[in-house]
Design brief:
This protein is of the alpha/beta class. It is 45% helix and 12% strand. The chain folds into two domains: 178 residues, Rossmann fold; 123 residues, N-(1-d-carboxylethyl)-l-norvaline Dehydrogenase, domain 2, CATH 1.10.1040. The structure holds nicotinamide-adenine-dinucleotide.
């Protein structure tokens, strides 16, 4: 028997919105909580984008499936209402420790006794927040990957005091919602996926921050060297969203004393976020959507000789 019929998702941004939509599609009743009506409105708009994706043949949802998904979703800015019936709460608020801690503290007295809580944090450990939840035995990490309908892995990572029953609950939930669980038995910042993924994005961003290559050329190189991949690092960054990329680079740049990460964060803020280029969901990031340049037929083609002079110009160091 399912142990999770009522899911609450805290934070209705890029990942919270996907987790909510996908879990509702798989039959769960989902309450989405955020701090502002504007954020919830953005989430609702994003969900219509997800509906269109689920209607495509790869997923093959029917109009009726999509309508029932919508019916299973509710949205609120009232935390007490959001968690009143929760069997499982998945936290997907910004990757900023103080924000996460404060949400957990606020929520602790409002939760039903049986509720399990999981963090979707990309880079922090469950032990960083276990005390704030007020229920360390019922708390672990449940980490999704962006585009969860196709990247359907979920990493499950406990901390020392997580109860086995909690891991059973979240693993069952993962399987019921069509996810492949990846057990990460030892607490590790970044799990499996974020041990290499932010490192890839950071290396790519450093090339652009330092003026060594254009985003298009980084992606072109990646896509030719990895034929069959759907996008390169800057396409991926647009999907992650600039806010989370910025938060991760800023936090870990300070913690590690890494000047390049901080320079990358500053570049992202100045060249993208401040210009409203916050990522794919906003319709523009490094690329413009819905038809990003990297999907154009000639993006990976051998260039015509008419481009020779332009290419050579770009080979010559700037004065
Ligand atoms: N973006 C990704 O690709 C990705 C992938 C896996 C995990 N994650 C993780 O998921 C979490 C959320 O990331 P995101 O990219 O969805 O961020 P986001 O910036 O897109 O969304 C965060 C949402 O949280 C809301 N919020 C802010 N303060 C809040 C509060 N006190 N209570 C409730 N909501 C609040 C914001 O209004 C926003 O809607 C982070 O921990 C991130 O590391 C992100």
């Amino acid at each position: 028997m399912s142990q999770v019929n009522h899911l609450t998702v805290l934070g209705s941004g890029v990942l919270g919105g996907q987790i909510a939509w996908h879990s509702a599609f798989k039959g769960k009743n989902v309450v989405v909580y955020d701090i502002s009506e504007e954020a919830l409105a953005r989430c609702r708009a994003a969900q219509e984008h997800y509906a269109a994706i689920y209607l495509k043949p790869e997923i093959g949802a029917s109009e009726a499936d999509v309508e029932s998904t919508r019916q299973r979703l509710t949205f609120t800015t009232d935390l007490a209402r959001a968690v009143a019936q929760a069997d499982l709460v998945i936290e997907a608020v910004p990757e900023i420790p103080d924000v996460k801690t404060s949400v957990y503290r606020q929520m602790a007295p409002l939760l039903p006794a049986h509720a399990v809580v999981a963090t979707n944090s990309s880079t922090f450990l469950p032990s960083d927040f276990a005390a704030a939840t007020g229920r360390p035995d019922k708390f672990c990490a449940l980490h999704y990957a962006n585009y969860i309908w196709s990247a359907n892995v979920v990493e499950i990572m406990p901390h020392a005091a997580t109860a086995r029953a909690t891991l059973e609950t979240v693993t069952q939930f993962a399987i019921e919602t069509g996810m492949v669980p990846i057990p990460v038995g030892t607490e590790h910042n970044g799990y499996v996926i974020n041990t290499w993924f932010p490192a890839l994005l950071s290396a790519a961003q450093s090339l652009v921050t330092n003026g060594i290559a254009t985003p298009e050329d980084v992606d072109r190189t990646f896509l030719i060297a990895n034929r069959g991949a759907r996008m390169g690092p800057f396409g991926m960054m647009d999907i992650v969203g600039m806010k989370t990329t910025y938060d991760v680079s800023t936090y870990w740049g300070h913690v590690r004393g890494d000047a390049q990460m901080l320079a990358n964060a500053q570049y992202i803020k100045t060249h993208l976020m401040d210009k409203g280029r916050t990522g794919m969901l906003a319709g523009k990031g490094y690329y413009d959507y819905p038809n990003p340049a990297f999907e154009a037929a000639d993006f990976l083609a051998v260039p015509p000789l008419s481009q020779l002079s332009d290419i050579v110009d770009r080979c010559i160091p700037k004065a």
